[in-house]
Amino acid sequence: MIKRVQAWLGRKDGQQPVEISPDNIPRHVAIIMDGNGRWAKSRGLPRIVGHQNGMKAVKRATIAANDLGVEFLTMYAFSTENWKRPKDEVDFLMKLPVEFLALELDELIEKNVQVRVMGDADALPAHTRKAMEEAVARTQDNTGLVLNFALNYGARKEIEDCMRSMGEDIRAGVLSPEEITSELIDSRLLSGGLPDPDLLIRTSGEMRLSNFMLWQVAYSELWFTDIYWPEFDKTHLLQAVAEYQRRSRRYGGLK
Ligand code: V0D
Q: Does 255 fall in a domain?
């Protein structure tokens, strides 16, 4: 059964219909939300206005993914490298989880969304951590879309921490080297319990992974768009999913 989803793709030649099959929706979509600063600069606005509008796009993407039947949505909100930005900008960014949850948590709960966070929360300001912990606690039994924020996250550090902890277990005699398998590593990464992303989206024209989920995206379909993150809406998600469905996924083997 093919459901025809009509979506405006911003093409000069008019509306372009996108075909989405309900049988092959990516279970896990991960997004590198790039281009907030560039979006603001292109409009002569301060960078923080870009981040503010980026937050609105997080809401749109969440609703669109939920409506489409995506089960897991991971958003790269703050990398371990982002601490190098000017202090004022970092301070502003750290208020966004508080603001986002104050505005949206009730609706997320109503929609049965489960909020998760992956990354080193210890280094975050108390107000940021508190808002996130509260959202995670209040939604932990929800059974709908899992909205997973990667915050103070870096893939190499995640792998480093995982290897160190396995080394410690070997030294303590509770783990043997033969027991180290892909499945064990999966379970001990910060994304433990989530399936690997089926589809990775990056906005704003850059075609890099930038230390995002390096282990987990081994077989993911990658989709890049030139649009800036604050412009992202459901038509872009539909476009990405339609392309995902067009590609054959072979896992390096036969179809
Ligand atoms: C700025 C674009 C939502 C990327 C989106 C602290 C950069 C807007 C959150 C958020 C950020 C995080 C956790 C949570 C609820 C919401 C967020 C940051 C940046 C980094 F539980 N948007 N958002 N967090 N931006």
A: no
Domain tally, the chain = 1
Whole-number percent of the chain with pLDDT over 70: 91
Does pLDDT of 2 surpass 90?
A: no
Give, using CA atoms, the residue closest to atom 19 of ligand 1: 77
DSSP β-ladder status, 199-202 and 3-7: unpaired
Is 30 a member of any domain?
A: yes
Q: How far apart are CA 173 and CA 176, in angstroms?
A: 7
pLDDT of residue 18: 83
By alpha-carbon position, which residue is closest to atom 21 of ligand 1? 132
Q: Is the CB of 77 under 6 A from ligand 1?
A: yes
Sequence-separated (6 or more) residues with CB below 8 Å from residue 81? 154, 211
Report how far apart, in Å, the C-alpha atoms of 93 and of each of 125, 153, 233 are: 11, 14, 21
Does 20 contact ligand 1 (Cβ within 6 A)?
no
